[in-house]
């Protein structure tokens, strides 16, 4: 099995180029047709056109991230069946073009969420950050969501109101824009009013109902993917906690177990994101890799570091350097190498793509104006560190096996 080094690229407008990706050591490109609205079918011609651009740079488009699932599908609102069929047809078209790894997520309304996009990192450079107090301030003082005060509780609500009072007008505008305009990979930029309307549409939808929608979706699309030889890889929630009163159902080992049980074939697989899952201290990532290894088809390798917020019901955190923070990436890599050996022994030769997910802004990254979380130098450093760590883990595993011992 080949551990395939990949690089996320947001298309021709990305300030980080395909040449940058190749010089960083990537061989596979992770991208999507972001210009096509969510719910519309990706035509073969458009897929091939993007493939040709990537190939001209000496690389190959091997992973789609993300083929977006519409809010209609998640809510099973009118038109959802048409959207599911469009999603299924896009899978067929991607398979026709030889692309067989497709990542998607099931986060309602918003995808990954941050409150700050350019925070000073502990050892220099800049990073992205999620401040739970700032997010509560947005919820309580800007969105003014009904019932939010009771959900956050007295201590957190007081801290949020105090935080909001200290913001200048420009700082408040920046916070609002950061949350509402979406981060790389999404399709939408919302206003306060549009967000409130979407929340009304979701009103009353429980975690169980959201799971029901996901289960129905998997039953409909996985047979299509299976027939085409495509792996659908669901991405965890980021952060893995309910936001704005909306449930999130891809946050824990129990959630992943439930999802994989909905369809037992290889088409129903995981994007294992160590940064997102690692935000929760109760997630044992190494144990999760060990349990789900045979169903992991795409790896996002990064580390987050939790911050203490007294009285808050969710964690504040920032993107740490790849081999720092709260995530034991070395231990996780050892588990991945173990799975690599098992697949090789069974004759499974398919590649396992991984990427240095996110990255801190280093050196001249700030001058480029790249997409938040996706700088050139920061990810180059991350990919180099991961490449070295995987090499170390493989050699260590060989030595352990020679002495008839196994890692704990």
Descriptive account of the structure:
Catalyzes the dehydration of D-mannonate. It catalyses: D-mannonate = 2-dehydro-3-deoxy-D-gluconate + H2O. Its cofactor is Fe(2+); Mn(2+). This protein has 408 residues and is an alpha/beta fold. The protein has one domain: Divalent-metal-dependent TIM barrel enzymes (TIM Barrel, Alpha-Beta Barrel). It is built from 16 helices and 12 strands. The strands form 2 sheets. It has an 8-stranded parallel beta barrel with strand order 1-2-3-4-7-8-9-12, surrounded by 4 helices. Helix 4 packs parallel to helix 10 (207-228) and helix 13 runs parallel beside helix 14. The longest helix has 27 residues, at 376-402. It is globular, with a radius of gyration of 21 Å. The chain starts with a strand and ends in a 6-residue tail after the last helix. The mean pLDDT is 95.
Question: How would you concisely characterize the structure shown here?
Answer:
It is built from 16 helices and 12 strands. The chain is of the alpha/beta class and 408 residues long.
């Amino acid at each position: 099995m080949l551990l395939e080094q990949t690089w996320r690229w947001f298309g021709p407008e990305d300030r980080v180029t395909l040449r940058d990706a190749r010089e960083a050591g990537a061989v596979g490109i992770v991208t999507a047709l972001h210009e096509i609205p969510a719910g519309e079918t990706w035509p073969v011609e458009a897929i091939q056109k993007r493939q040709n651009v990537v190939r001209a740079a000496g690389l190959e488009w091997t992973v789609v991230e993300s083929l977006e699932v519409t809010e209609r599908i998640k809510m099973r609102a009118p038109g959802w069946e048409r959207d599911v069929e469009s999603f299924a047809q896009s899978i067929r078209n991607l398979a026709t073009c030889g692309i067989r790894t497709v990542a998607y997520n099931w986060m309602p309304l918003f995808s990954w969420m941050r409150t700050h996009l350019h925070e000073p990192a502990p050892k220099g450079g800049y990073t992205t950050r999620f401040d739970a107090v700032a997010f509560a301030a947005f919820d309580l003082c800007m969105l003014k969501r009904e019932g939010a005060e009771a959900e956050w509780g007295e201590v957190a609500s007081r801290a949020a109101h105090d935080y909001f009072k200290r913001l200048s007008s420009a700082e408040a505008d920046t916070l609002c824009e950061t949350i509402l305009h979406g981060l790389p990979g999404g399709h939408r930029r919302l206003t306060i009013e549009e967000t409130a309307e979407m929340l009304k549409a979701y009103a009353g939808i429980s975690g169980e109902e959201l799971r029901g929608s996901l289960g129905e979706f998997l039953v409909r699309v996985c047979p299509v993917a299976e027939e085409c030889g495509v792996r659908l890889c669901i991405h965890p929630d980021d952060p893995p906690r309910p936001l704005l009163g909306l449930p999130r159902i891809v946050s824990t080992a129990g959630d992943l177990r439930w999802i994989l049980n909905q369809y037992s074939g290889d088409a129903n697989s995981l994007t294992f994101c160590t940064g997102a899952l690692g935000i929760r201290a109760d997630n044992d990532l190494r144990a999760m890799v060990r349990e789900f290894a045979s169903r992991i088809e795409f790896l996002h390798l990064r580390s987050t570091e939790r911050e203490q917020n007294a009285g808050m019901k969710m964690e504040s955190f920032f993107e740490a350097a790849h081999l720092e923070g709260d995530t034991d990436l070395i231990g996780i890599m050892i588990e991945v190498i173990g799975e690599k050996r098992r697949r090789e022994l069974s004759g499974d030769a398919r590649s396992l793509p991984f990427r240095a997910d996110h990255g801190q802004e280093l050196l001249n990254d700030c001058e480029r104006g790249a997409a938040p979380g996706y700088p050139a130098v920061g990810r180059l450093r991350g990919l180099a560190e991961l490449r070295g760590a995987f090499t170390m883990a493989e050699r260590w595993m060989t030595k352990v096996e020679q002495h008839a011992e196994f890692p704990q």
